[in-house]
Amino acid sequence: MAVLSGRYFPSSLSAGRPASMQKTTAQGVSGRPRGAAAVPRGLRRAYGREMTRRAGGLQCGAVSAREKGGKPRRETQVTWRDRTELALAGLAADRPARPMIFVALFALLMFLPGFFSLPPIDRDETRFAQASRQMAQSGDYIDIRLGEGTRYKKPVGIYWLQSAAVKLVGESHATEIWVYRLPSLAMAVAACLLTYLIALSLVGAQAALLAALLMAVCFVLGGEARLAKTDATLLATVLAAQLVLARLHMRGAEAVRGGWPWLFWGAMGASMLIKGPIGPMVVGLTVLALIVLRRGVRWLAPLRWGRGLLLFVAIVLPWYVAITVKSGDAFWAEALGRDLIGKIGEGQESHGAPPGAYALAVWLTFWPASILLPFGLWYGWSARREPAVLFCLAWILPSWLVFEITATKLIHYVMPTYPALAVLAAAGWLARPDGPLSRPYRLFLAAMLALALLLGAAPLIFSLQYGTGPSVLWALGIALSLAGIWSVWTAMRARARLRVVLGMGLLSLGLSVSLFGHLARFGHIWPSNALAGLYVQAAGMCEDPAYLSVGYGEPSLMLLSRKLPHFVGPEEAAGAVPDAGAGCALVFVEDRRRADFDIAVSRQGEVIGRVEGFGLGGADALGITAYLFR
Question: Does 546 score more than 50 pLDDT?
Fold first, then answer.
């Protein structure tokens, strides 16, 4: 109760019965005033009988004991803001099932805007999705194929999940990107739930609810929930293992009896199939740091290392052996040599950055949860000897250091450490000293809130540049952002410990609606959509045309098309053009290869369309002409 003092939890509660709850009332009846609503049992458990009687009993115009002189004193009305705060605290105090349902629904509300409408994003997402589509179509669940080649950058786990999603939804939807995003959405929600369970073991019910909701509003997790990639699934597997480790660290062997060790090793094996050694590295570094801090390894014995390692090997080894037999050393050369070791040694695909880049970027990538991050940093230092804080620091610092010194840097690489940041931020906010916010923090808060409007303005700039004009979705997103700014500001001024995250939810939802929900309108950045439509048009003009593309090879074109296109050079495309009346072929030619194609081709084709814009995969301006030869 001490850390929750302030407007909602007055210090008078610890000293005795508040003046407003004295026996004598205007009605002359002890207890709550006539007509006052009963307070739910969960609130009484959360705050104590006196405080909840006070919160539930006060009504607009309720009159309590008379002041000196006989003039009645009117009590302060309990507003909807007060009741929202109390309801959240009562929810946190309930059994875990209800808070977890709330967290899951809240996370879905944050993640769903734009989930279905956002077109495939080149290049990584579409490569994963197209490889999964081909796996589902071929029935070969060992090899990973992309177009006419292979895709050996990542292990098979994510392709199995996405192929299962295709089978579940139906192959008639195999060209729709949202099908392949379903595993990411489910795992992002699972990550929020696992954050709640981990925090519940570390810092208690209210901080656990707050930490889970902070993860749900986190910008980078919201982005990964909408992408058919590995990172949301990787996060869920890491958190499943960290949950077991947190229980063992805080409560000893009794907390991990039964199936908990199998969850730990199963999660480690699944993580190895999703993104190779990255997940086990994060968990392993946490274990090593805790061994140093605890000065021993005996506390790890309940994890059943012998049987657990056998389970880990049983999960991981069969596919790795099978792909080695099928591909020789090709998989290992690509996955280890080029993808993993290559990213450590040098920045790949123009994604290099110096050490310290993640420490600067976290204020944006963790936004709007980063509003509470200063409290997490303060709490992590001031309570650094507490077991829960030690666990979070052992989780964050070693892995963060590894990611900082790695040459290739992408904003989602440090995401496996974000749940620990959320736990520290939640605990620090709840434990902060009473009193007004400091001036430096108020300036920081103003900057963080202004960021909502800056991010929301980006779609408007695109709209004006490409002539689409602002939409209702953009206006709705800005309105939600303004409501979020007001809500966060007023909640912090009122020292509302839990209600502040609902304001952050409005900020996150506003950005999701204005950005993710609005991007689909910008046809200039989705040329593959228009090109796939031209193939449908060509298929209606002649039967089963040959399908070729010269100079444009984005994988989104493969995913969106009912037939697999061939990405070829000008000479090969010209050789595939049939003689007049001997068949038909559709050829897309990018402007920079058009002169070479005109020289190589023997006859002029019919222009059935032209697409202009730029590709997200290469950020280059594009002009593509569609020729139909028949």
Answer: yes
Domain boundary among 56, 71, 90: 90
- Which helix (H) or strand (E) segment holds residue 263: the answer is helix 260-275
Handedness of CA 265, 267, 268, 270 (dihedral sign): positive
Q: Is residue 21 part of a domain?
A: yes
pLDDT digits (tens, 9 = 90+) for 378-422: 999 999 999 999 999 999 999 999 999 998 888 999 999 999 999
Report how far residue 224's alpha carbon sits from residue 394's, in angstroms, rounded to the nearest whole number.
Answer: 25
Is the backbone peptide bond immediately before 123 cis, with ω within 30 degrees of 0? yes
Shared domain check, 293 and 155? yes
Give residue 25's region: left, alpha or beta (phi > 0; psi -120 to 50): beta
Q: How many CB atoms lie within 10 A of CB 263?
A: 15
Amino acid type, 249: H
Give the tens place of pLDDT for each residue, 496-523: 888 999 999 999 999 998 888 778 778 7
The pLDDT value recorded for residue 45 is 43
**76: which 2 tokens?**
């302060």
pLDDT band at 597 (very low <50, low <70, confident <90, very high): very high
Sorting pLDDT into bands at 50, 70 and 90, what band is 48?
very low
Angle between helices 278-294 and 387-405 in degrees, nearest 10: 130
Among 470, 502, 521, the domain boundary falls at 521
Specify if 383 maps to a domain: no
Q: How many Å apart are CA 416 and CA 393, to the nearest integer? A: 13
494 neighbors 434 (Cβ within 8 angstroms):
no
Residues 6 or more apart whose CB falls under 8 angstroms from that of 245 comprise: 264, 283, 286, 287, 290, 391
pLDDT exceeds 80 at position 293: yes
| C-alpha torsion 9→15→16→22, nearest 10 | -70
Residues 6+ apart with CB under 8 A from 231: 184, 224, 275, 412, 415
The mean predicted confidence, pLDDT, of the chain is 85
Count CA atoms within 13 Å of residue 286 on its CB side. Answer: 28
611 DSSP β-pair partners: 624
CB 247 within 8 A of CB 201: yes
For residues 156 and 275, give the distance between their C-alpha atoms in angstroms, rounded to a whole number.
Answer: 9
In a domain, 298, yes or no: yes
pLDDT computed for residue 462 by the predictor: 73
Cα separation, 162 vs 228, in Å, equals: 8
Lowest mean pLDDT among 72-86, 278-292, 491-505, 568-582: 72-86
546-550/585-590 β-pairing = parallel
Q: Is residue 251 in some structural domain?
A: yes
CA 154, 519, 168, 174 torsion-angle sign: negative
Signed CA dihedral, 189, 193, 196, 198: sign only: negative
3-state secondary structure of 346: coil
d(CA 356, CA 404): 6
Contact 541, 630 (CB under 8 A): yes
Find, among 205, 208, 206, 278, the residue nearest to 241 by Cα.
278
